[in-house]
What does this fold into?
Amino acid sequence: MKSTQTTNPLRLNQQDTSRLPYRYFILLAIAYIVPGLIWRGLWKQEAESFGVMLTMAEGAKNDWLLPNVIGAYVFDSGPLPYWIGAIFIKVFGGFLGSFSAAQLAIFCQDALSMLLLWQAVFRLGVLPDLQPQRLAFGGEPAPQDYGRMLADSAVLLFIATYGIAAHTHDTSNGATQLMVCMLWLFGATRALGPSNSARWFWGLGLAGIGLSLPFALYIGFVLITLAVLFFTHWREQSLHNAPLTLLLGMGLPLVWVANMSQYEEFYAGWLSLQHFAPISNANLRFFIRNIFVFTWPLWPLAMVCIWRWRAQWGNPMMLLGLLLILMPSLHLALTGQRFVTTLLIFTPGLLILAPFGLATLNRGRANIIDWFSLITFSLLAAAIWMLWEAAWLGYPTFANNLIDKFAPNFTPIFKWLPFLFAATVSFAWAFLLHWRIRFEPRAIWKSVMLSSGGLVMVWVLLATLAMPFIDYARSYEQVGTSLASKLPTQTTCVHAYQLPNEARAAMYYYAKVPFIPNQLAFAHVQCPYVLTTNQAVNLPKTPNENTIVTLMERTWRVAWSGERINERKKSLVLLRVD
It folds into this structure.
C-alpha cells in the first residue's frame, strides 16, 4: 500500500499553526463588514434590489411571489435575497428605517458566510488524508490545530478578496448568493461523516441557491451535488443524505417556479432569461480582464494548491474546489451573461483551495504576498488621506481637481467620529506592520494578515474620509429630495415611462412617488404626472421648465428635472399633463 506521505506536500510544525487571537479576528471581521453599510444613501447598483425588498415589506402576497419594484417586474434572480431583506425591513424598519434595516440584513449574511466558511474549511482540515507529513523527531501540528489554522486563513482570505468586498456590502443580491453557497459547502463537508443535520444544511443550501442564483447556475449546483453525494468519500452516507438533500434542494425552488408560472407575464419574462448563448469575444475579453482582479489574492494560491496536491486530486478538498470552479466556468461559456454573479460564484471554490495552497508556500514566496500587501495598501491609504486633505485645503492641486471632476461643487463637512475611526485604523495598520517586521511570526496565516488588514484599512478609510464626496456623487438622496419638493403631496398616481428600475425604487423611497404598476397602460389609468428620463422623450439633459412634450397622444409640460451628480448624459424628468 502506497503511503499518502510520499505525495503529501505539507511539512509543518506546531509553530506554523499557532492560534490567531480571536478577539482580533472578530474585531477585524466587524471592521470589514460595517464600513460601506453606514454614513451613506441609496446607490444605483443596489437601488433595484432594495426597491424589491421595500415593495415586499409594504405589499401583498403577490409581491412576495413575484419580485417587483412598485409594479415593475424583476426577473434576473430568485426571490430569496428580497425575502430576507423584506423580513428585516418589517422587523427592524420601524426604529432603524427601511434602508438601515436592509443593510442590517447584509451585515448578518456576511457574518454568517464567514462562519460557514470557517466551519467548512475546518472540517476539511482535520481529515486524515490532508494532514501534514509526520516529522522524524515529532513536532508536527495536531489535526485540530492544523484545521483551525486553515479555517482562520480561509476567513482572512475572504476578507482580503476585492470582489467579495465590492459585491457583498450593498443591498443587492451578492451577500445572499455567497451565503447560500457557503451553506451548501458547510452541508457537503459536514456530510463527510455521520451527521443527521448535514442533509438539512446541504438541502437548504441547494434550495437557497435555486432561489437566489440564475437557473442555469442552479442546475450546475444540482449536478455537482449529485456527483459529490455518490463520490468515494461521501458514499457511505449517501443513502442517508441523498433523499432529504435532493427533496429540499430541488423541491423548494420548484414550488416557487410552479406558483410563479401561473402568472403568464412574469413567467414569460423570467423564461426569456433562461437561455443558452455561447460567450461572445467581447464578453470573454471582459471576463479575462476582470477575473484576476476580482478574485485576488485567491487565484494564485488556488493554482499553487492544485499543482502541489495534483497527486491527490480525488481528496474532498480538491474535489469540491475543482467542481466549484468548473461549474461557473461552464455557465459562463454556455450563457455568456450575468458577469457579476458568475464572477462571485468563482470565489467559493477558490476559498476552499487557497488556504491549502497557502500552507504549502515556503517562507520566501509567502513574503512576496506580505511585501505586495504592505506596498499596495500603504500607497492606497496615503492616496485616500491625500484626497481628504485636498478637499479641505485645495492642494495637492491635481487631487483637488480630481474631486471636482468626480463630485462638482462638493463642500466638505468635518465630522469627528468618522475622522477618529480613520485615524484609529491607520494607526492599527502601522502597528500591524511593526508587529510583522519586528516579530517575524511563523504562523501560516501571517501571510494573509497583511492582505486582509490592508483591505480593511482601505475599506474603512473609503467609508470615513472619502465617503462624503463618494456619496455626494452616487446617492439618489439629493435628487429624490428635490423631486419631493415639486410633486404635490395630494398626488395619487404617477406613470413611469421607460424609467430604469433603480430610479423607480429610489424615487419611491426618497420622494414617495405613487407609481402605478407597469402592467396598467396609459389608456387604462389617467395620471396627471409621468416620471421619465430626458433620453426617453428626446430632451436635453437639463430641459427648461414648461417645455412641451407629446407622449402617448397627449401633451405634457416639464414640471421638474434633476440628476445624480455623476450622471453624464441622463436626467430624470417629471411631466405634468397640459
About this structure: Residues 1-6 have pLDDT under 50 and may be disordered. Residues 136 and 449 are 30 Å apart (CA to CA). The longest strand covers residues 554-562.
